[in-house]
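Human:
Take a look at this sequence-structure pair and walk me through the tokens.
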Amino acid sequence: MARKPAHAPGELRELILREATLLIEERGLSGLSAREIAKRISYSPGTIYNAFQNLDDVILTIEARVLDQLDERLRQVSASHDGQSFALNMALAYLRFTQENKNLWNLLFEHYLDASKAPAWYQEKLDGLMANIERALVPSMPGASQDDIQRAARVLWAGVHGITSLASADKLANVSNDAAQILIRDLVATYEAGLQSRENLLAKVG
């Protein structure tokens, strides 16, 4: 029989989130369940649903914190006078974060939630992450429209994300013998050079 609640509602939520986060770090998303969380905090599984709407609510709250941590990491990257080094430092910071928080980072892409059911704040956090990449590309795209910068940021992120995903899954060796850091350096340098050439060409043709 579960013991009587010994925590205030806010404390209980934090306790649930802490143990759920530890479970994901240890076992990945597949190892997370309301029953296992309840076992760890010595409450009944029903207590989880008193504190959260459902397990998706627990997971989304953890995802929000992971996104906040990643956003903070990217914001710490200092802009330099060289746009390429700024974008590269941003990409390498992203790679380091994924390597340090493997299962939590994978959670963002393993957890499926219908886009129509995702809370508005979730998309806002994703947009905030993209804004970090956009500001890293601005030095290489003088005079570019905001739409062009947004699209370029998403293309670059998709490439960096692909490399980090392969590295995270220990499958990078299937496509290259080089380390993820080297591939990311090549990707960013080539992409930045392409953007600069594009902007120079557009400037010449008016």
The chain has a mean pLDDT of 87.
